[in-house]
Amino acid sequence: MSESPVETVSPGEPAPVVGILGAGRAGTAFARTLLRAGIAVDIASTRPPRALQHHLKIYAPGAQPVEGEDIAVRARDTSGIVILAVPQEELDEVDPDWVAGTVLVDATNTWQDELLPGWLQAAVDEQLPTSMALAGRFSSARVVKALNHIAHADFDDGARPDADLSGRRALAVAGDDEAARGLVMGLLVRMGYDPVSVGPLAAGRIMEPDGPLFNRPLRREDILRFAR
């Protein structure tokens, strides 16, 4: 795994910043873990920043509320990473220009009761991994699938940054761009997890709700059984 901006910060340098789109249970769980790891967080939702401030004081104290269009402004200069944690039914509300030039972590899942955007429903109907449809929609970003197969309720307690990798919960990572995949893996290490590459974006199918990795406490060897 290559060194990345989220892994090494020299004295005097500002903390890396990760953007999060979505301030629900998953988005705020990611934010809390990032903040504990010394990584600053910008977070946006459908609510304007002023309306989001009180919510974040309760569920992700220290996270900075921003407009959606500003979600990647600071991230581009540091970590390069934005986490997509909005319901898939709301993806049309995310302007692809907001995340242009970033590594976009697709932490979303498809649920049966959601009314999906047409472009995403078409991929589901063709039984394609949804991340591949997102990569087409957000073509100006490098999409990596991660963080979707662990329940938000387990995320805080699952992070063990002080443990050796062998003692950490493993999380799968899929992506076509090797450098982007490495950046996300570096971020997961710093957050307290053991990242395991399962291969290209299409391999992310095994991380979806009907896949063998979904919502299971996993070690590295459990994931490697399914890696391409």
UniProtKB/TrEMBL annotation:
<keyword id="KW-0560">Oxidoreductase</keyword>
<dbReference type="InterPro" id="IPR036291">
    <property type="entry name" value="NAD(P)-bd_dom_sf"/>
</dbReference>
<dbReference type="InterPro" id="IPR051267">
    <property type="entry name" value="STEAP_metalloreductase"/>
</dbReference>
<dbReference type="Pfam" id="PF03807">
    <property type="entry name" value="F420_oxidored"/>
</dbReference>
<feature type="domain" description="Pyrroline-5-carboxylate reductase catalytic N-terminal">
    <location>
        <begin position="18"/>
        <end position="109"/>
    </location>
</feature>
<protein>
    <submittedName>
        <fullName>Dinucleotide-binding enzyme</fullName>
    </submittedName>
</protein>
<dbReference type="InterPro" id="IPR028939">
    <property type="entry name" value="P5C_Rdtase_cat_N"/>
</dbReference>
